[in-house]
Design brief:
By secondary structure, this protein is mainly beta. The protein has one domain. Helices cover 8% and strands 38% of the residues. It has 1 helix and 9 strands. The strands form 2 sheets. A 6-stranded mixed beta sheet has the order 6-5-4-8-9-7, with no helix packed on it. A 3-stranded antiparallel beta sheet has the order 2-1-3, with no helix packed on it. A hairpin with a 4-residue loop joins β5 and β6. The model has no long low-confidence stretch (mean pLDDT 93).
């Protein structure tokens, strides 16, 4: 007998589809109520399969950051802890790369491109 969770497209296909529609949705575990990323069939924290999709607030803060030096121009790469527990790697826009600091308050934004992606802007205070 096969497990129907493995039939068809995986959860990553849903994630990319919602990004293409301009929405950030993450999976949330029913029992532990934690959001997580990347998409998976089971919660990486507790191993439960009772997961659903939810739209996070998009609020987060820089967990770690680095500045990448490139001939085309410097840019930052940041690990961002979102409210709800998920951690994503992306970049912070609207601020000089060297000005991105741990603890900086951010807000997620979906960028429409050939393949949509998530970036972070400074949160308004």
């Amino acid at each position: 007998m096969t497990d129907p969770r493995f039939d068809g497209t995986g959860p990553d296909a849903y994630f990319w589809r919602t990004l293409a529609q301009g929405r950030l949705e993450l999976q949330r575990c029913g029992p532990c109520q934690q959001d997580y990323f990347p998409p998976a069939l089971v919660c990486p924290r507790c191993g439960n399969t009772d997961v659903h999709w939810a739209q996070p607030s998009g609020k987060g803060q820089v967990y770690a950051t680095t500045t990448v030096r490139d001939r085309a121009g410097d840019y930052n790469v940041a690990l961002v802890d979102l409210e709800g527990g998920a951690r994503m790697m992306s970049r912070v826009e609207g601020v000089e790369p060297d000005a991105v600091r741990v603890g900086l308050q951010l807000l997620a934004r979906v960028v429409q491109a050939e393949r949509p992606y998530v970036v972070f802007d400074l949160a308004e205070k």
